[in-house]
Design brief:
about 200 residues; mainly alpha; Four Helix Bundle (Hemerythrin (Met), subunit A)
């Protein structure tokens, strides 16, 4: 496959994932009549997320517009590895649909929960408490593989680390809202990957 085919496939995968995410996030705001303030996570964390997010979202589009602009971070991956990135990206898009359709209007842009939030334990949430962080960061790693670009892949890892730092606060909010129900849920599920030996 030549560079243009990888660019087209990367664009389709990224834009499809973004489209699914945007649809469900807008729908959650409409369904609940509630827009959650991003200030809830604190100014330092939110500034890191905003800056990281801006770079994270701009870099793939810079590559899609002109790969030569990102040539400084080219790895030199084989076509086979880049094709593996395409397969991984497709799985990530399916995962994005699965997790958003499972959590419905409970999705939130911050660590805060919505007032009408109900605990979702279906779909991927049956095994993993925060599949969005795993799948979302994996999508950018797969994009980095498709684009043959270490910087984009590293941004996916960096974003996952930021979200992992924020997760204890998010889980504290969920315990505050759901109490023992969430504590029991935590016993049977992994934070980012399925728990080995869980029921």
């Amino acid at each position: 496959m030549n560079e243009n085919i990888f660019r087209i496939l990367a664009a389709i995968i990224l834009l499809t994932g973004m489209g699914i995410s945007s649809y469900y996030r807008i729908k959650a705001d409409k369904d609940t009549g509630e827009t959650i303030s991003r200030k809830v996570d604190g100014s330092i964390m939110m500034n890191m997320i905003k800056i990281g997010g801006l770079i994270l979202w701009l870099s793939p589009f810079v590559y899609l517009i002109n790969p030569a602009w990102m040539a400084w971070s080219k790895i030199g991956l084989t076509e086979w590895v880049r094709s593996l990135g395409v397969g991984m990206g497709i799985l990530c898009v399916l995962g994005i649909y699965w997790l958003f359709s499972s959590i419905g209007s409970g999705i939130s842009p911050t660590s805060a929960t919505r007032q009408q939030h109900t605990l979702s334990t279906k779909g991927p949430y049956r095994w993993v408490r925060h599949p969005l962080y795993t799948v979302g960061s994996s999508l950018f790693i797969s994009f980095g593989m498709m684009a043959d670009n270490w910087f984009i892949a590293a941004l996916g890892i960096f974003t996952f680390i930021l979200m992992a730092i924020r997760t204890p606060k998010e889980e504290a909010n969920l315990i505050e809202k759901f109490g023992d129900e969430y504590r029991e849920y935590m016993k049977d599920t992994g934070r980012f990957l399925p728990k080995i030996g869980a029921r």
